[in-house]
Amino acid sequence: MAITEGRPLNEPIAIIGTGCRFPGGASSPSKLWDLLQNPRDLSKKIPKDRFDVDAFYHPDGSFHGRTNARYGYFLDEDPYAFDPSFFNIPPTEAETVDPQQRLLLETVYDSITAAGLKMEDLRGSPTAVYVGLMQRDFLDSQNYDLDALNIYAATGTAASILSNRVSYVFDWHGPSMTIDTACSSSLVAVHHAVEQLRTGLSKVAVAAGSNLMLGPVPFISASKLNMFSPQGRSRMWDVGADGYARGEGAGAVVMKTLSQAIADGDTIECIIRESGINQDGKTAGITMPNASAQEALIRQVYERAGLDVTKPEDRCQYFEAHGTGTPAGDPLEAQAISQAFFGPRQRLEGEDPLYVGSVKTIIGHTEGTAGIAGVIKGSQIIQHGLLVPNMLLNELSPRVKPFCRDLEVVTKHQEWPALKHNQPRRVSVNSFGFGGTNAHVILEAYVPCVDSPANGPSSSSAISPCLAPISLSANSETSLRATMEDLARFLKDRPETQVHDLAWALLKKRSNLQVRYTTQAKTAQGLWETLERDGALVQGKQSIATVSDLKLKPQVLGVFTGQGAQWPAMGKALITHVPYAYDIVSELDQSLQDLPAQYRPGWKLLDQLLLEGDASNVHDATFSQPLCCAVQIILTRLLQASGVDFKVVVGHSSGEIACAFAAGFISASQAIRIAYLRGLTSKQAGNPNGQAGAMMAIGSSFDDATELCELETFKGRITVAASNAPESTTISGDLDAVQEAQEILTDEGKFNRVLKVDKAYHSHHMAPCSEPYRGPPTFGHPHLWTT
């Protein structure tokens, strides 16, 4: 029980990512929202590529081997189209994998991508998977020819594998189970995911459903129970309702406990306040719903949430009903809703009716996916604050009308009802299976606290990515090009998109796939124009995509420079545009201000880094050394925050200080103090005879440079300070000797450039400052010296 210690038993659950595939081109939550706002009749005759329905049709559904249903709601996409390589499934095995499994894998991937979770970060984690399933058409078709079954037949069609395949592909080690309670399957899956998260045994849980109509068997069997609408329409509560119309679809929601989602800075779409399941028990028939059981469940779920269904402020403002359009189910559900929320009481003056509706009137009854479909719709209307219309309601059924005194079916667009008593937007989602398993979920809007890190990179302590690259990846050049086209299309539709927010999301919340593309842009228009131009170059000999081996983690080498590479106002753009960089400089300034008074600088790093032109002190050693160190600390920490870790670090001269910080041997505070004290003591550097010092980069080998310095005229005056490359060396020493050497090198036609430093580092000029630098006080920093 230690797992749940200190954890609320009924802590709200955050939905942080959603994926879906529904009829009408609703291949994402945003496209589903577009469809919900502008619903249209999507019912159509069963396509020939599924099966020839005319060969099985008879107007009398009870006729042997026949169905009276010829219509349904179908996905626009090919249910057999699948990229097995993306999920590391051999093509020969993929052929025998139920398309419902294939569709589910794609939808779950969409959901974790929407949640901003990386596949590589979730591998090996106790992530839980609960999947709702009702039909198994592909199994029926496979069993037509038993001699053709191959080694993959069992794992390709088993119900258990529907969820297990997800866990296997993504390498998740939490509970993994497929749930079949018929039409309520996926909402029951949501409930179990909620329960699992509340135990603390899983940090992330995925609830999903998948449903495809591939063969005639379910049509024929359910026709015997008079379940289907011969018209092929799900007319919730309408006088003309004559059964339900089947629909295809898949949906997945990614969840965490609310506290975990807030701590992780996740985008929270809405929260699940409470969930519950129960059973009808003994009724007039096993397929006959039980209004009393549904009413009891609604009351129980609200009670567990600490809500009183009899109080207007505690009930939901909208109820997503099961609403299949069956003559038996609709009146009993209407009765349960009315009795649960109103019972014998009269609606108060000014109290809004309870608005009801069902997504099934638009996309059909997606059976094992129906509960998830209701949750996704509920989440969307909560996020947008708008109630969207049902379809197919011409006149209330006389069997439903008695329960609609306080209920109102939404038939047109309308604003969310006025919220009173600090209510959140609240939605109930109801679902029941034809065997009597009922499920109910309460959704609510998430209103973040002012100081909550959730919902993006707005925190001043978070990395603000205005200067970060736009990075996209895919598993093939074809997929990468499609991704670029999708993003360009998105930006055209939403020109107000903040590029820095987009860059942050792509950098921190997208999995790294094999084929990658990187660019930069300042505006949405600039980015979509770049994507369109570069997208045409992705495939072919001019491809600008790079391919990496995901099995090998890139090994990054960090090289830290010494003096001579600095310039006025270096780092200004970072500090003024990236709050995280500003915070780092402020921390470093505070460390220097905490030094004893006699050593404390009378200036600040922040001010000095912002000075431009002649006002800058960046070439004065007292300032340049801590300023260069500070900028390199900023860059290192920004890279670390972006997930870039150095495998090896190399420091040059005073760059050894920032190098030691990057290697983890000293803290940022210790590094800046060492650099500051090094610059402070360098004031004492110089030639005893008063000769000024200088340094010069030359295009010579180490041996040639050494030979030059050992000439009689230069001996004791200049020395080799650094061997940078086979033909790149730095010499250091007396200014007049450096100038004389420059004349010789120029005459010989060799590269030479005097460095912008005022000290002759790595030479005899440093001897006077060595003792003060190595001696006390240390102010808490270790003994680390550079010359």
UniProtKB/TrEMBL annotation:
InterPro entries to which the protein is assigned, alphabetical: Ac_transferase_dom_sf (IPR001227), Acyl_transferase_dom (IPR014043), Acyl_Trfase/lysoPLipase (IPR016035), Ketoacyl_synth_AS (IPR018201), Ketoacyl_synth_C (IPR014031), Ketoacyl_synth_N (IPR014030), Malonyl_transacylase_ACP-bd (IPR016036), PKS_assoc (IPR032821)
CDD domains: PKS
Entry superkingdom: Eukaryota
Protein name (database record): Beta-ketoacyl synthase domain-containing protein
Keyword vocabulary terms for this entry: Oxidoreductase, Phosphopantetheine, Phosphoprotein, Transferase
Gene3D superfamilies: 3.40.47.10, Malonyl-Coenzyme A Acyl Carrier Protein, domain 2
GO molecular function terms listed in the Swiss-Prot or TrEMBL record: 3-oxoacyl-[acyl-carrier-protein] synthase activity; fatty acid synthase activity; oxidoreductase activity
Keyword Transferase: yes
Pfam families the record matches: Acyl_transf_1 (PF00698), KAsynt_C_assoc (PF16197), ketoacyl-synt (PF00109), Ketoacyl-synt_C (PF02801)
GO-annotated biological processes: fatty acid biosynthetic process; secondary metabolite biosynthetic process
Taxonomic lineage of the native organism: Eukaryota, Fungi, Dikarya, Ascomycota, Pezizomycotina
Domain Ketosynthase family 3 (KS3), residue spans: 10-445
The keyword Phosphoprotein is annotated on this UniProt entry: yes
